[in-house]
Amino acid sequence: MTTTTRDRIVGASAELFRRQGYTGTGLKQIVAQAEAQLGSLYHFFPGGKEQLGQEVIRWAGLLYQRLVEGFMIAAPDVVTGVRDVFAGAAETLRQTGYADACPIETVALEVATTNEPLRRATAEVFGSWIESGTRGFRRAGIRSHEARSLAIGLIAALEGAFVLSRAMRNTEPLEAAGEMVAQAVERAISATG
Amino acid sequence: MTTTTRDRIVGASAELFRRQGYTGTGLKQIVAQAEAQLGSLYHFFPGGKEQLGQEVIRWAGLLYQRLVEGFMIAAPDVVTGVRDVFAGAAETLRQTGYADACPIETVALEVATTNEPLRRATAEVFGSWIESGTRGFRRAGIRSHEARSLAIGLIAALEGAFVLSRAMRNTEPLEAAGEMVAQAVERAISATG
DNA sequence: GTCTATATCTCGATAGAC
DNA sequence: GTCTATCGAGATATAGAC
Question: What is the pTM for the complete model shown?
């Protein structure tokens, strides 16, 4: 393993922010988990916690986008792809004791009205996800406007199901929400031919 | 106005937790906004921040449930009711500068893996919401199992749309998610007759 | 019940040796 | 680049007068 100190700090931050949120995670906890020193953190991120937060949001957001795109590309059709995304999320949640869901959701809610630079970072990530989903649905023959609505509906249902599933500690919400989205996509496909 | 000190503390906490989250809100900020003193807070809540958090989650959760039930009851049919709930949420979000969405969502994500008593409180609130929604859909003639799935889908879509709308500062996610849920309910109704 | 003062701890951030 | 010591501010919580 040849991970740099900088990478370990970003990785540890992403994991902790995802589970405990931004305000709930201290810089000392981050460097401890990253097996780094506080001086190194400020060396790589002179802007402190906020700069680190921005980079973590963008990095984790892109990684998660690729993960979901992987599920969609691997599936034989988009409806199956949607079901696979929700099933995969449920599987991860179960395996991590309902800890690892969306990497930026908790942070996004925390900073939405308290930290404008971080809020913008989360908005850009969500915007990129919506565009990615829209492209996927368009490729399946769905017309532009509806493709975008379905992409937003998919992401919203997934994020909301994460909240319910993490709080209630069962995957029923992910299953119900996934089925609702899958059927909406199915309807849109059969309507377009 | 004859609000008691205790009520003002609970009300101020609810507003601040909703906007800034649990870890992001200090007890001194709460008593300042409540125009109360720290001693009063510990007089009414000897269990400190955690006891206050539990009470706020349950109180705000019940209040919000009644708000949504009000929209559903006032509507001429359930599909219109669903649309009204999302439209009402969008209106509130716009009016409050995208600050006031779900009263317990941010807290629920923060505590899901860090504070078991608070996690249980959020789980109970979500459970109560799901039961309320299930009853509403059953009254419209939808069979039990599907009514529950739709209730979960509705809450998940609403919660997820809140995340997107607050981060992106526009109500498009609430509109897209609301339409997806409304059509799912419409389909379930016409299938049952 | 209300209010003030304070104890103890942890936070983010900085300085400077190496 | 790494590491340690420490700063000032803010956190939760407590004690005790009134």
Answer: 0.98
